[in-house]
Amino acid sequence: MDAAYEAKLRADYDGQSREDVLRDYREMLRIRRFEEAAARAYTRGKISGFLHLYIGQEAIAIATQQVMEPGDRVVSTYRTHGFAIALGSDPKACAAELFGKAAGLVGGVGGSMHFFDKERGLWGGYAIVGNHIPVAAGHAFASQYTGDGRVTLCFMGDGAVGIGPVHEGMTMAGIMKLPIVFVVENNQYSMGTPLKRTLPVEDITARAAGYGFASDRFHVTSVQETRRRLGEAVERARKDGKPTLVELITYRFRGHSMSDPAKYRQKEEVDRWRLNDPLERTLMALKTIYQVPEAELDAMDETIVAEMDGAYEFADKAPAPAPEARFDNVMAEGPYYGDSATTRPAGVE
Asked: In this protein, which residues make up the domain named Dehydrogenase E1 component (predicted)?
C-alpha cells in the first residue's frame, strides 16, 4: 500500500468507530458471500433464467439501509439481491426465491429478477429496464397525498437513463415536488456498452436541472461517504419535498449477468477498479487503521460463509410450489380454462 493510498484511506475513515466500520464490513461481506454462493449454484444448474450479481456495489445497499426510516421504500432494478440482504430479508428466503421454491420471498414465482419484501421496504425488483421509475414516482405521490412522511429511493442502472418512462417519471416528480431520490448506479457498461458510446454527456446529473431536481455525483469507495451523501438527499426529500438525482459511480466485477463473459473490458481495467472496491478498502482499513486481528476477520468470514451456505442448502431441500399455486394472485377467480371445455369462453380453444 503506497503512501498516497494510505493517506486517502485514513482520511475516509477519520472519525469512524471500530464497531461501525466492522459492522459495515460485515454487512457488505454478507452480500458478497451470498452472491458468490448464487454464482456457484447457477453453474450447477440450480438457478434458472438470468442471474445479475451485485458484486462490487454492496456499499450502496448498505448505505441505503442506514439512511432509511421505517416505512421508506426502495424500488429497484433486477440487480436487487443486495438490497434484500441489506434491508434484512432472510437469506434462506432469498436463496429459495432464486431456486423457485415455495419458501422464497414471493413463493418462488419471482426468481432472481423480482425480489420483493414489503415488510422490509423492498418494493421490487423490476425486470423491464426503466419502466419502474413511474411506479416509484407513484409511491412517492402516495406518500405526499397521505402525508405519511415516507421517502422513496428509486434505483436504476446507467443503461436506463435513455428510456422514455424514466423521463416521464422524473418529469412527474419534478412538477409535483415528490419525496423521492432517484439513484443511478453507474457501473460503467449498461449491459456491455461503455457509457461514452450511449450518452452524448456522460455526467448523468446534468439532466437534473431540467426537472428542477437537486443533484449529486461521486465515486462509491466507502459506506460512510455514500451514507452521508445519500442521507442528505433523503433528508431533502423528507423535509423539503424536493427530489434529487444522484449518480453513484461504481463497478460490477462480474458480467452483466452470469451468461456474460465480459470480454468487452480488459483485466487491467478490472484490477484498477479493485483498488477502490469498498469491501476491500474497508478490510484494509480494519487491518491498518483499526488493527483488527486477522483471526477475528477470518472468523467473521467463516461465520458468514456458513450462514450463506446454509441458506442455499435450505433452498435446495425446500419444496417446490404446489401445482395449484400457479393460480394464486391471479385477478380473475373461478374455474380455469384447462378444467373442461364447458368452462372456456366462446372462441377459446
From this structure: 27-324
